Amino acid sequence: MSGIQGEVPLSIREEFEHLLSEAAKKCNSDNDNYKGKQTIELVILSGYKDEPVIDQDGKPLSRRTTPLHRAARDECKDLKVIPSLFKIYDNFDVNYTDELGLTHFHIACQHGCYNVVKKFLELGQVDPNLLVPETGDSPLHLALDNKREEVAELLLRRGGDPNLANAAGSTALHLICSQGLVDLAKILFELNHEMNQPVQVDARDKFGNTPLLLVVDDAHKNVAELLLRRSSNPNLANEEGLTPLHHICQRSRFIDGIVNIFFRVNDELNQQVHIDAPDKSGNTPLHLALRSNNRIAVELLLKRGANPNLIDAEGLTSLHLIYLMGYYVSPKILLEIWDESNQPLEIEARDKLGRTPLQSAVAGLQPEMVDVLLDRGADLSNFVFPAQSHFEECLVLLLTNEKYKLELLLKLSFGALAVIQQLEKRGYELDRSDVLTIMTLLYEALVLECLVAPIHEQDGESRRFHRWQTQLPCIRPQRWSSRRGAVFDDQTLWSSIDQLLTRYPTRHTAAHTHTHTHIMLQLKKGVENASDLGEELGRVLGTAATASTLLHTSTIEIKDLDECATKEEVTAALDALLGVPVSKRDPVKSLRKAYAGTQVAVVALPDDLAATALKLGHVRIGWVNCRIRAREEAARCYRCWSPGHVAARCKGPDRTELCYRCGQKGHQAKDCKGQPSCVLCRERGADDHRHATTSSSCPLAPEDHPGPPMMRILQLNLNHCEAAQDLLCDTISRLRIDVAILCEQYKNLAPPNTWLADADGQAAIWVHGGIPVQERPARVHPYFAWARIGGIFFFSVYAPPRLSEREFSALLANITEEACGRRPLVIAGDFNAWSTEWGCRKTRPRASILLDSLALLDAVLLSTGDVPTFNGRQGSSIVDLTFVCETLTPRVLSWTVSGLYTHSDHQAIVFEIGDDGASSRPSTRRSYGWNARTLDVDRFSAVVSGASVAPGTAEDMASSLMSVITGACDASMTKANPRRRREPVYWWTPEIADLRRSCLRARRLFQRSRGQHDEETPQRELRLSRRLLRVAIKTSKRRCWRQLCDEVNNDVWGKPYRIAMSRLGCPQAKQPSSPLLVRGAVAALFPRVPSGPALRLPRRAEEPIPAVTLEELKGAQSRIKERSAPGPDGIPNSELKIAVAARPDIFLRVYTTCLETGVFPSSWKRQRLVLLPKPGKPPDEPSSYRPLCMLDTAGKILERIICDRLEAFTERPGGLSERQYGFRKGRSTIDAIDDVISTAREAIAGKRWYRGTKKSTAPW
């Protein structure tokens, strides 16, 4: 279609309408989404614009259903469709309305089309409060309901009424509060204050909820404070009688901040809060807090005078419910808080069933609560033991919100024994039926929680239950059934077992009972006749018992599991891998979180099976080919924290109550605010103990040897997605990526980023890590970019699928032509080629063309495995490939498809390239020294003051002196970190990190659900998670931009000024990274001089060399600049000056010895070389660099002392000539020029000019 000009005929307009409507439907389909978007883009490129239909009166008709209405009604999945359609329907003089009353203006507000909404409002043809008849939603409702904050702010500023309610009774403030939009709430109140329009802060929806009732957790605490300060009534209740305080108290977590703000603001405003307000069920806030185990709310309510004697609809007081808090806070503490309020406690209060608090405490199995109530006067003479139904009710309430139910059940089992002991101790006589009531109930609950599984198939808590079960004789069955029809009583069973065990000489044989069906006998490790025992048990007892031996196991780790993998999936995969049913041994001990949303499984297998698994190396679990590695962990005691043994064999002190960080009692490391102090180093008398116990800084910790130097590369197709490119910035920072090879970037980045792109914006190379770009193409090419980085030529390629085979061959020909003669070589990108050679299901012609072309470059394919690099709605494939030349292959340390979430439909590929042998660093590499900011001056001075230097040769004394200063630096400063941690991008927040993890999980669940009946639900969740992540990134960027603008207004020379100047400044000069280039530059700049005989000057015996004086030492060290860079020893100049001031005597002895013996210590001759590139010079030439040599400061002081003595000799009369100007203090070349000029003037002024010429009589 060509460009359409002028008025469009009605028939053509109808054709376009039909075409766009069908395209909008396709955009909502997974299969035809691309076709629908392509159709809409084609119509836009044709130039078609909608024109309104004119009626007989010459007015445009607004009643019309357009494709925009259809796309909005169908809830189009693609968020770009609605904005694209507004490019066609851009006549904002007419607000088209469909038959249900939905207008274009409503659609623009709903989908966040800010510019469209703005144009509608500027033309004045729409009412900002126009309602949708079907739902009663105003434009402001639609914008807020879909989290379009910018549009909502625009509507508020243009007259949007925040007090309008929709069909559900919700106002704009209800929606703002439910989503916690505190900034928008502030704007709402400020605008309405300016317009003298009050906001109804206590408006009710159809359920009676006020905006304040919708704010119930810490995430929205700022909104709650704003509402309270705007006179919101804190005591209004909804239809269920719940007030805001009820809502807060019935939550079990995330209420610390909001409950404190709630009471603090109301206290400041002198606004009374109804602490004891009952809801329609009679529950006060205290009742709800107790039922929810909300300890913070319970304590705060009691301190504020809540009445504990009020009853609910069942007649229960707070004292009846306090047993629910028994395992979270001591009842004694709660009752002491009650006592402070001077309110009498009704100890014998009865509910509607006649139950007392003491009966509830016994039924809740809370021994401490029973003890407290009896101490406070509970009547035991009229006590009636609770019925079984009462125990069941309490047990259900205790387990309702409990995550670790089995652990709580075990606590309750011991609590039952303690309750029985308390009652018997106080004189209450229990019947056997009372005991059986408790034990039967607990036993049934425990068996149900353990799922009646064999002992060897249960987890650790289940096995712990069976160990503890023997301590509860009341619940141990008296008769045991092996199978139906065969019953053995306890005495017969154990008698048979004892007879068998006497024939097997084993020590410490343990017998465990399990439910009603199995008995397990565990023999110690090393017993070889367990099978014989099993056979004889089988003959005596049939199938009533089996024998097994404790096998020696090895622990392995399975890495790279996705976060959706479960223990059952890991076990099933091991069964298939090893061909042995390992599931019976419960091999998976734990699943712990690892980096980038992955998991690590710790598996215990018999030694032979573990060796087989390690030899195989990988196992396929779900969609991931996971690595199998041996688990190596140093033994460390968790009781005394010392290495080398475990807690079972510990003979050291018990440090379990100490803080790992500071070594003090009373808190944990996460709450520690003190300075780090290692307990182990302190006890050993070590000088340096300023680190956390068991940390990597501790001398007792295993040494961490750095790996070889390498370059880390990331490869990714961004799919022209803004959010994907934003997340890429954080990924590069977190993974310490040096080079990023990118395809289909969203936009090219400007300096100071080192970004090299192709001609069409389809491929790019992004350089990080300070690695210089040594070579780049003279002109850019379409579809590929290349550069030489760190001595390696990188090619980034994107071959669009629309290229024909001929065009694809031409593209590869251009690449091979550019790459010819350039080695080593990396060619990576999205080639859109399919072949079985790299894991695809079939081979297409493109793959053959690709392999034939790159064979000319001796390229080797790195892509291995069958992990897809592209995951689209229509399926998965492997199209992102990596090729390297043969000479580079041995240096590739790893290549993997990362599971990190990218927000693109492509996965990231990460691989590492190590340095070759020629680039190894010399052994005298620079030590990174110390961090001078952490200097402890007193400690440094104390160490230096207590040191001494023994007499000896100049070399030995200088070495001893530097050892003293180095030790003082170690004792008073922390080591400098050689690798600076890359900071995250400026807009990164914990919320965005959580949303990224949610997207990763949603994507994995969606991929696993393909082909299943419930595929649409994970797909919908993935789409929602992606949208929330995009919105969060954009919102964070806008917030940071506003903060930056505000800082400009507050401080002109602050952070914004520094950011602007950093963009204007020149890039930092970087040293050459190529080892060959460095060696060539050193050889050219520092040529070797042939060694000859040393020049020795005769010295007269009667001329002794005077000792170095204190004035000479102070004068020399005062000329050293404190902020100058140190030499190879890394000792800061400021610390060396402190050492000179603390112990000048040892410095004087060492320097005097050097002068007397005529020796300059060799350690002070070492230099640290820095090559600074000259601007505009070719980087491959040695003369393009300016060398700087850093010497140790102690040697500089000796040089200065020698120089001062030489200057004193040369500057005295009879020393240097008066006409010597170079290298002399107070003289320069300018003085020599002045001397020549003055001589010339004297000559011109003399008689020699008489009848002569200037040329012949010039003084030179």
From TrEMBL:
CDD domains cross-referenced by the UniProt entry: R1-I-EN
Domain of life per record: Eukaryota
Gene3D superfamilies linked: Ankyrin repeat-containing domain (1.25.40.20), Endonuclease/exonuclease/phosphatase (3.60.10.10), Zinc finger, CCHC-type (4.10.60.10)
Pfam family, one: Ank_2
Spans of repeat ANK: 135-167, 207-239, 281-313, 353-381
Domain CCHC-type residues, every copy: 636-651, 659-673
Keywords associated with the record: ANK repeat, Metal-binding, Repeat, Zinc, Zinc-finger
Alphabetized GO MF terms: catalytic activity; nucleic acid binding; zinc ion binding
Family annotation (PANTHER family): ANKYRIN REPEAT AND PROTEIN KINASE DOMAIN-CONTAINING PROTEIN (PTHR24198), ANKYRIN REPEAT-CONTAINING PROTEIN-RELATED (PTHR24198:SF165)
Protein name: CCHC-type domain-containing protein
Species in which this protein is naturally found: Trichogramma brassicae
